[in-house]
Write a structure and sequence with these properties.
By secondary structure, the chain is of the alpha/beta class. Helix content is 22%, strand content 25%.
Length: 289
């Protein structure tokens, strides 16, 4: 099904969001758009919605199974506007959002569906899940000048850290069960990344409810949604394996000539398996075994 604008989707597309979980994929360009959509279909999302320019083409199998909304990501606040529209359309449903060339991984995702994982998370009285954006990059930028290669993808095995998140409304005391996470390419090349965009944490999985709004820093207006765990024990977390930062650093004229290779002594091949991310501490199973 295709909708020619977000406004038309808002008026006529609610029937496609009646069953969750729902994946919202935002295309900033056409890099690995088809693999991104297929990956999230294979995880078990009941509906995958692609927001993309009209000029982008999809293979026939995706054209038949993905809800397509003609949309541009070039305007400020485009992501929040679309996600908040979907929230209002799908009250009570679990939702996920990502960009093209980003791939959700959660503990045991090779053998368990995203619906099974979210059912457990719901039973733990959680309405949102913290995810870490783990940067992917090609090891050979001469062969892959946009830094995107599924077969030659690498990640950083170390260099991740967290800082307390200050509460401006409470004399900058740390917020309860909230942290700002850093690492990956945004940390290694921080001179090319604006300060507000250096964090790698994202509340990418959440349950829609009345009044919920996504903010520009990938947090929500309900502070409990922004916590990494409940008060009594650790909860599930997820990872998003993402080429987005590598693409941006190589396409930006201010940084591309400073970067001959993203690899360093802590680079390791990405195995496309949740076990590697668990072993590196880039997500955790909580009480789900």
């Amino acid at each position: 099904m295709k909708f020619d604008s977000l406004e038309i989707f808002k008026k006529s597309g609610a029937e496609f969001l009646r069953k969750g979980p729902i994946a919202l994929v935002f295309a900033e360009d056409d890099a690995e758009l088809d693999t991104t959509l297929r990956h999230h279909q294979q995880l078990g999302f009941a509906q995958v919605v692609g927001f993309m320019p009209a000029a982008f083409s999809l293979p026939a199998d995706l054209d038949d199974t993905v809800v397509r909304v003609t949309y541009s990501m070039l305007t400020e606040g485009a992501l929040e506007a679309a996600v908040n529209t979907a929230i209002n359309m799908a009250q009570g449903q679990w939702m996920f959002y990502c960009y093209n060339a980003e791939y959700l991984f959660y503990p045991f995702c090779e053998t368990r569906t995203v619906g099974e994982m979210l059912s457990f998370h719901t039973e733990e009285r959680r309405d949102a899940m913290l995810s870490y954006v783990v940067d992917l990059y090609a090891d050979d930028l001469d062969a892959y000048p946009d830094a995107v290669s599924l077969d030659r993808a690498f990640i950083d095995r170390s260099g991740y850290y967290a800082l307390a998140r200050p509460d401006a409304a409470n004399h900058n005391h740390p917020k309860e069960r909230q942290l700002d996470f850093y690492g990956g390419l945004r940390w290694r090349y921080e001179e090319h990344v604006p300060l507000p965009r250096r964090k790698i944490d994202r509340i990418s999985l959440f349950r829609a409810k009345p009044g919920l709004q996504l903010r520009g820093d990938h947090t929500f207006n309900d502070e409990e949604y922004n916590t990494f765990a409940c008060p009594w024990h650790n909860n599930l977390t997820a990872s998003i394996a993402s080429f987005r930062t590598a693409k941006a650093l190589k396409r930006n004229p201010g940084s591309t000539f400073d970067i001959q290779s993203f690899t360093w002594h802590n680079s390791v091949p990405f195995e496309w398996h949740s076990r590697q991310l668990l072993d590196l501490g880039l997500m955790e199973p909580g009480q789900w075994f």
